[in-house]
Amino acid sequence: MNIFEQYRADVTALLQKATPDNLAIIAQSIELTSRYAGLALAKQGAEAPVDRDETAAQSLINAVHTNSAKHSPMLMPAASSADAGETPVAPETEGIEKVERKLIGAIAGNRFFTEAAVRDLDLADGDTVRLRNDDFGDGTGVTIIDRNRNTENPRIKRLRGAVIEHDDTLPSGYQFVAIRDVHGDVLMRTRDNVPVTFLIKQIDVARLALRAGDIVDLAWYSTDGPQQATVSWVYKDKQGLKPKQKHVAKPKKKAEIKTQETAAESTTKSYAPRIQFNLSGRDVLFVGNVTSKQDLELVVEAHDGGETTATAATKGSQLKHKLARADIAILITDEVHHITTNTSVKIAKSLKVPYAVASSDAPLVIERALYRALTGMPAYESAQSNFNYPEVN
What we know:
Elements: H1 3-16, H2 23-47, H3 52-71, H4 75-83, E1 96-101, E2 106-108, E3 111-113, H5 115-121, E4 128-133, E5 140-146, E6 156-166, E7 176-181, E8 198-199, H6 202-208, E9 215-221, E10 230-234, H7 260-267, E11 284-287, H8 293-302, E12 308-311, H9 316-324, E13 328-332, H10 338-351, E14 355-358, H11 363-375
Parallel strand pairs: 11-12, 11-13, 13-14
Antiparallel strand pairs: 1-2, 1-4, 2-3, 4-5, 6-7, 6-9, 7-8, 9-10
Helix pairs in contact: 1-3, 2-3, 9-10
């Protein structure tokens, strides 16, 4: 048996063992063997005459190489990229991890994300993400590729916007409780309709320097119960604690708790539109002026918009995640550095998210920007601009 016949017999025997589970590795093995055999034959051909058997073997090598590539489409692009000196394309599964939410922060793979990062990136327990080097140069990027839509029996319970209150009647080791939210509503009731009193742990008081009137989020594992609640977030400007995004409205006075009547009045506020257009349920992201979110929501609601989000994020990766979830983006420049605006514009263009730039959060200015973004008009409106807006009759 010559080299040609031996090679054909070995390859045939190997292919007979192929199954759907091992076909890829067998095809890759044949390809690698063929490649090195071809290199050996080519070298021999340069140094000595090649007989008929070796020429035939080379033909068989080429045929097997082509045939194996048909069974494994990943092989040929990889080979051509390597031959051309290009960087191989990473497999689709590379860097894919599940998010495991903690009371404070989250873990994905071997990376820990702070509570601030979790909120900026909008991560949730059970989400599937891809970790990679971010295009904008600010660390590892995170792309959410699949949301955990299972809402049954969450591992962690959370309450937002609880107000810290001082209580002199508490047992030793405690000084603060949380019973109501910023609107004066009871945070939670028992099955007997009794308000739940959340005891604030002393370790949380020391860790976050909590004081009466602070607005916080509470979290606890479902298996532990609310009596083990931990303060996971505090809404106040303090070193290391400034929130990237405000999720609840902060009272005008720190110690003030809004009454039921005040809250009811605030919910009846509305905005009378001056420009005629319909957002048709589109979600709107405002970059900047987070403290004006409630007034911005009124403008969006007046035009039948969807969810309104405001962010104070400045990093490219954070802005990219926010913009990826928006149908329209408005960049408000009076409280945002121009670098942030430029980065937002760059990302919005790359994601094909309609956007416009507003010079302030004045309702009419926001209305004009929304209309420009919706209709594809120029993003910027200078003092010399003469744009025509359809007024409400």
